[in-house]
Write the C-alpha cells for this entry.
Amino acid sequence: MKKSILIIPVFAFLLVTPVSAQNVRPESKESTYQNTSFYDVSAVNRKSFRKKPKNIILLIGDGMSIPQIYAGMTANKGNLYLNNFKHIGFSRTYSANRYVTDSGAGGTAIATGHKTKNSAIGVDSANIPVPSILEIAQSNGLATGIVVTTNILDATPAAFVAHVPNRNMMADIAVDFTETGPDVFIGGGIEYFRNRKDGRNLISELSSKGYHVCDTITELLKIRSGKLAGFLTENRVSKRGDQLPLTTEVALDILDDHKKGFFLVVEGSEIDGGGHSNDIAYTVEEMLDFDRAVGKALEFAEKDGKTLVVVTADHETGGLTLVDGDLKTGKITGRFSTSGHTGLMVPVFAYGPGAEEFDGIDENTSFFNKFIRLLRLKQ
Ligand code: MG
Ligand code: ZN
C-alpha cells in the first residue's frame, strides 16, 4: 500500500512533463569557439526614406535570440551588420498550443498572422488554410522570393507558400511550392520535386512555367533576371561557404526588376542546427553567415531608399548561455541547457521606411498585419 503511494506521484510527474522539458540537460559542458575569419562591417547612414516601403526584405534567423547574436558579435570582435539598426523590438513566440514553439507554428505566425499548433504549416489551429503575406503580395502584383540554407520545403520557408496540417508532408509542400510559384526560390530538397510517388515531375512543371532551374551555385550565380528555382545541397557553412550572402544578392538582383515592388524572405536556417547540436562553433559560424546576408539586404536598402529590412527569428534554440568571451580576440565560451527550443522572446530589427512600426514588444503574429498595411496590400 505504502509503495503505490510513492509510485503514483512519480508517474503523474512523467505524464504532465511536456515533451520540450525532457530535452533539458541539467549538466551541460562549456565549450569555446575561437573565431579566425573576421569581417569588416560597413555602416549604413541613410537618414531619410519615403513614407511607405515599396519592397520588404524579411530575414529570419531560425533559432536566433540574444545569446546567438551576442555570441556572433563577440566572435567578430564586437561588430555585426545588426549593429546598424536603430529600430529594435521583441517578438513573443509562443504557439497556439505550446509555450515553446516549433518552426512550423513560428513561421506560420510570422507569415499568416495566425498562432497555430506546433508542426502546422499555413493553417490556423483548426487546420483551416490561411493566406500568407507572400501569397497576398503576389496576388497584388509584387514579385516574391525565398532564400534559405536548408531544404526549401522545411517548416520556415514552407509557412510562406504551403498549407498542410503537418510539416512532414514534404511531397505536398513541394506541390504547393510549384503551384504558388514565388519568382525566386533557392534551397535544398530537389528529390521531393523529382522522385515522386504521384508520378508528377515538378522540375519539368517548373521549367514549363518559365523557371531557370539550377542545381549548382556557379550556374545559379549567372541568373540575374526571370524566374529562378535554385536547388543547392544543404551543408554547414564550413562547406557551403558564402552561399547565403551570394544567393541573397542574386535574389535581390532579380526581384529589383519588378515595377510594383517585391517581398523577399531570407532564412539563416541553420543557426537552429547549431543549437540542436549544442555546438558553439556551428552556432556562431551560422550566425555570422546570416549577419553577412543581413549586410547584403542593408546595402541594397541603403542605396534604394524604398526598401524596409526586418530581421527577426521564430524562436531560440539550445538555451544558450554565454559564460565567458573576449571581444578583443573573438573568443566565446557557451553552455547549452537543452537540445530543443526555448520560450524566449526574440529580437526584431528594422531599417528603412516604416521601421518605427517594429519598436517595442509585440506578438509574432503582428508582422503580417504591419507588412500588409505598409505595402498597402488588398487582402
Ligand atoms: Mg527554419
Ligand atoms: Zn529547431
User: Anything to note?
Assistant: The first helix runs from residue 2 to 16. Residues 1-17 have pLDDT under 50 and may be disordered. The chain is about 35% helix and 20% strand.
